Amino acid sequence: MSDWNPQSYARFTALRLRPAVDLLMRVPQLRGDSIVDLGCGNGAVGPVLRTRYPEARITGIDSSPAMLQEAWKTGVYDALAEADIATWRPDAPPDLIFSNAALHWLPHHQTLLPALVDLLAPGGTLAVQVPHQNNAPSHRLWHDLVEQLFPGRFDPRSAPGIPDARTTWALLDGLGEFALWETEYMQNLPPAEEAHPVRLFTSSTFARPVLDVLTEAEQQELCRHYDAAMEAAYPRRSDGSVLFPFRRLFYILTRVD
Questions:
Q1: What is the pLDDT of residues 125-160, one digit of tens each?
Q2: What are the domain boundaries of the chain?
Q3: pTM value?
Q4: Architecture per CATH, 6-254
């Protein structure tokens, strides 16, 4: 795919950051001071991690050079590295692997998640938040519409996705002290004239693989149809804002000695 657009992604920073803060508040006390922000993106979570763990060594890992440049500007990371999460290995076992809205971009969770647990120091914690929105109109209609308008051009297997809660539980159950939960956030998206607010939220993330296979003219056609569908699925309120429910999956696992 094309590289991430930090400016588009940052448009909804507060809404994207809230689940990370909620997850961090559930992380148990750490035994050590080595933290990895796995899939750190533009570094939005970095200041939150630094506030809670002021003496920790925090390393950010991401595959996007553009996002890593933005993360460096925060000034809170001790180190940043460009790497693929699927093959990344730390120099030393971390006490916390914190991953906010990143692991859904990777396949093979049945091997990925246990492997991340194995990377932890004894007593270390894996804390993860991932979107669980693929069945909602905001996400499903990107796939439905591109198949209707441009059949065969997009392979849905390239889209981000996660195992459901029961499957995730089965993958991690027995590997440590484990908690899993889901939350639906009622997000109020501000008014926008250039597009339906839900398109502005999803086009910089979930829709990237869809848009990448289309020409600019085809992208414009798809977006027109998507905007019309969003007007029906998520109608604007009297002030032009949109109430956008968004479901997310959380889990925390701490290794036992």
A1: 999 999 999 999 999 999 999 999 999 999 988 888
A2: 6-254
A3: 0.92
A4: 3-Layer(aba) Sandwich (3.40)
